[in-house]
Structure formats: C-alpha cells, structure tokens
Amino acid sequence: MLLIRFLLISVCVLYIIRSLMRYLIPMLFQSVVNKAQQQAHQQNTRQQKRPEGAVKVDYIPEGKRSTVPDSEGEFVDYEEVK
Asked: What residues form the membrane-spanning segments (predicted)?
C-alpha cells in the first residue's frame, strides 16, 4: 500500500511540475529575448550617433612621437635576396 501511495504522489507531482514548466519556460525565454533585443537596440543607437567613417581614438601614447612628418611616410631598409 505504501508503494502505491508513493507512486501515485510521485506521478501527481511530476504531472504538476510538467504542466507548470509548459507555461513558465516560454515566459522565461521571452524575457531573455526581450532583454537581448533591448540591448541590441541600445547598442545600435549608440553607434549611429557618430558619422560614418569617423574614428575615435581613446589613447595616444606620449613616448612615441615621430620626428618625420606624416606626409613623408616611413622608410624601411631591406636587402634584395637573389
């Protein structure tokens, strides 16, 4: 009798959990998807504020100043190998 009672209670509990999960899991996934969409939208609006082709430089090291003007370019020594 104890075994039948245990099995009956187990089946009822599993059925209730299964029924609740059928409704709870889609709501949880929907909330996750909505948050991801909001973050993507916010990130997209931040990127659109800058004009296309604009470059933002956050840090310029102070020790690496070049004595050659930018119009001259850099010269690289090389040896021709035959």
From this structure: 6-25
Largest CA distance in the chain: 96
DSSP structural state of residue 67: S
41, 43, 48 from 52: Cα distances, Å: 18, 16, 8
DSSP 8-state class, residue 3? H
Task: Report residues of the chain scoring pLDDT below 70.
Answer: 47-51, 63-71, 73-74
DSSP string for 20-42? HHHHHHHHHHHHHHHHHHHHHHH
Q: Can you give the pLDDT at residue 70?
A: 65
DSSP single-letter state for residue 51: P
- Is the pTM higher than 0.70? no
